[in-house]
Each structure stands twice: as C-alpha cells, then as structure tokens.
Design goal:
The chain is an alpha+beta fold. Helices cover about 55% and strands about 10% of the residues. Strands 3, 4, 5, 6, 7, 8 and 9 form a seven-stranded mixed sheet that branches. The mean pLDDT is about 95.
Length: about 575
C-alpha cells in the first residue's frame, strides 16, 4: 500500500497524542487497535476509490448543464462508497447514524481522504459539521429530519456566509430574511464562494445561511437559517446556481454563486444570534482545515521523496550520477518538509482532543481552560497547515526540477489545489489579527499562558539538545508576547507584526509537538522517521523564532513608504 508510511505515522501520533488520558476520563473509549484498523480502511478507500477520480476532477471539472451542476464521471460512485462506509458521521452519536468516535480519529482519517483528493473531501466536511450544528441548535423535528440523512450522505449541506461585498466582514451581509407570519422565513439575495452550492451527488442540499433578519447593524442583525434547495415535493425552493467560478485548482469542487428568490427557510437558534449559532459549525470546519493541509502536504512530500530516490544527477563526471537525495540541499528540503508535516500533524490531532474536552469537561473551570486553549490553538492549526500544503507542494516542484512544472507529474496540480487553503475559512491575515486583538489583547493572553504552562511542563525530553532548543524558543515567544501586549492602543504596531506573531506561535506550538516526538516516538522504523523529522525541526527552531520575534515587534513604521504607491 502506497499509503502505508502515512498510516504508520498517523498511528504512532494517535498512540502518543496529547491529552488522551483526559479524553478517556470523560468516557470516550481510547482503543488504539480499533483506531488503527479504521485508519487502514480509510487508507484503502482513499487510495483505491477516491484518488483515481481526482485527476479526472482536475482535468474535466464540474460543469453547469441545464441550470444544474454536473460532476465528473466516477464522482458519484466514489461519493456513494464513501457515504455508505459511514465516513461522514464518525463523531456523531450512534442513534443519529454516526459511530460516536472521537474527533482525533476523524482528523486522522480526513488526512488520508485529503491526500487522495482535497476537492472530493470538501463535500463531506460541511455535511458532517452541519449535522453537528443542527444537533446542538436546531428544533428537534428539524434535527431529526436532516441529521440522519446528512450522516448517510443522502443529503448534503453548505455553509453560506460570503456575499460580493461581505466576505470576512460578515457585519456587511445584506441578504434579507423576512418572517412569513406563520413561523417560517423567506430569503432573497445572493451568496458567493459556496463550495458544492449545487451538485448531483445528493438528493437534497441544505444551505446553512447567515441572513439579515432585523434592522440592527452589523452582526446583531444576522440570524442563521436552514434553506433547502428543494421542498418536500421535490420542486425548487427559490435557490439557483448563477455560475461556477473558474479557479486555479480544486476543479472537482464546484464553487458556486447562488441566488435565492423568496426561498423558504427555517430559523436555527435564536433570532439575531446567527453568527454565534453558526460558530459550532465554523469551529469544526476550521478544525478540518488541519488534516486538509497536512494530507495534501504529505502527498507532495511522499512524491518528492520517491522521485529523489529515482532521479540521478550530479557527482563526479567520471562516475555514475548520484541520486539527487544525496545532495545536501535536497536533504534540507525533504527534512524541512517532513519536520513541518509531523509538527502540524501533532498540533491538528491535539486540537481535536482539546476541542472535544472543551465540550465534555464537567468542571466549569476545566471547561473554560480547555475552551481557552482551543481558541488559541485552532487558528494556529488552521493557518500552519494551510500554508504548509502550498509550501510543501512548492518544495516538491523544486525537488522534481523542471519536470515538476509539467502536467506529466501530479505535483503541479497539488500546488494549484493547495493555494486557496490559506484564503478560505479565514485568511492568514484574519487569523493573525484575531490572534493579536482577541487572544492576546482582549483575553490577556489566557490561551497562550495555558499553552506555555503545558509545553514547559512536559518534563525530561530525553534529549538535552532538543530540550534546550525548545526552551529557548518558548522564552522568545514569552518575551515577544509581552512586547506585543504593550502595543495595545498604540496605533497599528500590533497589526503590522500580527502575521509574524502568528507564525511565531505556530513555530513554538510545533516545537512542543516535535519535543514530544523526540521523547515518545519509539525506536522502530516509523519512530525513527518521526524523530529524524522532529530533530531537524527543532534544530532550526531557535533561529526561526528569533527572526519571527524581531519581525513581530518592528512596528508600523516600516509601512510608511506605502503612501508612495497610492494615487489620488
């Protein structure tokens, strides 16, 4: 199995993931043998069913035919196998058609599916996360009707937030919802950037939509609605696909501009509290961005590693050319990719446990602590994995050389597919501003403090050099955070350094995982690979964190020259 090394790494991470004991204490069964069997089944499905349709999805793409989106040949059959295997509802309760498995295992399986095809995987995630949101917030009859069908893959779901003039700035949403006087609502307007907004893979699609339901300004005027694309008798519900965006990558995932004309909708959660209600779905979608980026990065790395073991170039002209993996620069690229992948993988799996603990903890103080830690780590996991995917794909092209730039090899598609990951679900800049304004300033660095206490409390790493490298980097983070905290209210200094600060936090969180891998990964071949990747990551960490710290605290003065580029 080509996916076997990937499965081995995931299985070892699951064995040593942070907070498993705390998770088990909440009543969740931690059964590593069962988890590994599920991973192997996920890998077989990914490699044998999903991956073969991915190239067709890229080359042919979804099309609009007679006003509806038509997916590529083989997509529907692959979707049906995926759905029938129960992969959509892994963390959902058994009584709703799920398997009641932990989020950490969901994350691990999603890595494998995204490795096979990130475009394919973008349909299952909103269906699952919508089901979880409906369980938490919808009227019982709505949840009872929709959740089992979403979990079975019979019906699908979208998340509808963006409009032409309202993307991350959700307070400017204009689509209107008007009460019909009989308990229902009618929605009219337009939404854009809707992944799988229309398609032929499920019988029905439910749009989880933010719409303006009152005259309050900003987000206070927004409510959340479930807007089906068809009503009970199968007729269209005033929901129409206007067009599919022509995109750089992810051609098999139709990104739709949707129009709604007097469409029937059901209020989910309290009126005027739409964004707060939708957060349940948004947090889980953000969590899924981690395995999305890591799975794609792992695919790029494995292809580059294999190619480096086949391609010969260089060495003494009188001798046989050497494999390019013997060159120091190629080893640097491959080890750098491996180190970042394993660090991000550990962070992603830890976030799954932390988010679940924030919901299951019974003690209010513990619940608040886990929630604070989740709010700190989720933007890091999302952004570091998103940029990791593109960076690893770019490095893979570099390892391949000119061949990597051609369509003969699949790494050019990986590069195209990955570029959007740092854009959707909150751009890198949005995540960075949130980290500084909300997590550092408004919350006084509470989540960061919890992380530092955990990372410093790991104890003996069994490697003096690794411990020193991690310790020095944590010291840098703590010092820079103190400097950044002083920037509150001092103009744009914090904003100018926000992305570097987010990167600094991510580097150190990755260092915490790398330290754990050095200590716990084991001595077998799988463990040796994880340790090698982790040691390379830690070797570069102090220099990287020092540079990021300096960039984070430079202030806004360096932006003054931008005025020269502005025309009146």
């Amino acid at each position: 199995m080509d996916y076997q090394p990937h499965c081995d790494a995931l299985a070892r991470h699951l064995e040593i993931a942070p907070f498993l004991e705390e998770l088990a204490a909440t009543g969740i069964e931690v059964d590593q043998e069962t988890w590994q069997q599920i991973l192997l089944e996920a890998a077989k499905l990914a490699e044998g069913v999903i991956a073969p349709v991915d190239r067709v999805m890229d080359e042919v793409g979804a099309k609009i035919v007679d006003g509806r989106v038509k997916t590529v040949p083989g997509h529907k059959e692959a979707w049906e196998q995926f759905a029938q295997g129960g992969w959509i509802g892994l963390p959902l309760p058994e009584e709703l058609g799920g398997m009641a498995l932990p989020l950490v295992l969901q994350n691990a399986c999603e890595e494998l599916f995204n490795r096979a095809s990130p475009a394919f995987s973008m349909l299952g995630t909103p269906g699952r996360t919508a089901a979880e949101m409906l369980v938490a917030s919808a009227p019982a009859e709505i949840a009872g009707e929709w959740v089992p069908r979403l979990v079975s893959g019979e019906w699908g779901a979208t998340i509808c937030i963006s409009e032409p003039d309202a993307g991350s700035d959700v307070g400017r949403i204009r689509i209107r919802a008007v009460s019909d006087g009989a308990g229902g609502w009618r929605i009219t307007g337009e939404k854009c950037w809707i992944s799988f907004g229309d398609h032929d893979l499920t019988q029905r699609i439910g749009h989880c939509m933010l719409a303006r339901s009152n005259e309050q300004p900003g987000v206070r005027g927004l409510s959340l609605f479930l807007v089906p694309d068809s009503i009970e008798d199968g007729t269209r519900n005033g929901a129409f696909v206007r067009r599919i965006e022509e995109k750089l990558g992810l051609h098999g995932s139709p990104t739709c501009v949707m129009g709604y004309e007097d469409a029937q909708g059901t209020l989910i959660g309290p009126e005027g509290r739409g964004l707060q209600t939708l957060f349940h779905m948004m947090l889980r979608m953000r969590l899924s961005c981690g395995p999305q980026g890591i799975g794609v990065a792992a695919n790029a790395f494995d292809r580059a590693l294999r190619y480096a073991g086949e391609r010969r170039q260089g060495g003494a002209p009188t001798d046989k050319p050497v494999l390019i993996r013997e060159h120091a620069d190629v080893q640097r690229m491959l080890l750098g990719m491996a180190g970042r992948i394993e660090a991000a993988r550990g962070v992603s799996l830890a976030c799954g446990n932390i988010l679940q603990l924030s919901e299951r903890a019974e003690d209010p103080a513990e619940k608040a602590r886990w929630a604070s830690l989740a709010q700190f780590l989720l933007p890091i996991a999302k952004d570091m994995s998103a940029r990791l995917a593109f960076d690893c794909a770019s490095e893979a092209v570099q390892v391949f050389g000119g061949a990597g730039y051609t369509r003969e090899w699949p790494v050019e598609q990986t590069l195209r597919d990955a570029r959007v990951f740092a854009v959707f679900e909150g751009t890198s800049g949005i995540q960075a501003i949130d980290m500084v304004h909300r997590r550092l300033w408004r919350e006084k660095g509470e989540g960061l403090g919890h992380f530092l206490a955990i990372a410093r409390g790991e104890g003996d790493l069994g490697d003096t050099e690794a411990a020193a490298q991690l310790g020095a980097s944590l010291d840098t983070l703590e010092a820079v955070a103190a400097q950044m905290a002083q920037m509150e209210g001092s103009g744009r200094d914090g904003d100018a350094g926000a992305l570097a600060f987010l990167d600094l936090c991510g580097a150190c969180v990755g260092g915490w995982i790398a330290g754990r891998l050095v200590r716990d990964a084991g001595e077998d071949p799988a463990g040796a690979r994880l340790k090698a990747a982790a040691r390379f990551y830690l070797a570069e960490l102090p220099a990287r964190t020092e540079a990021l710290g300096r960039l984070a605290t430079l202030g806004e003065r360096r932006l003054e020259g931008f005025a020269a580029f502005v025309e009146d």
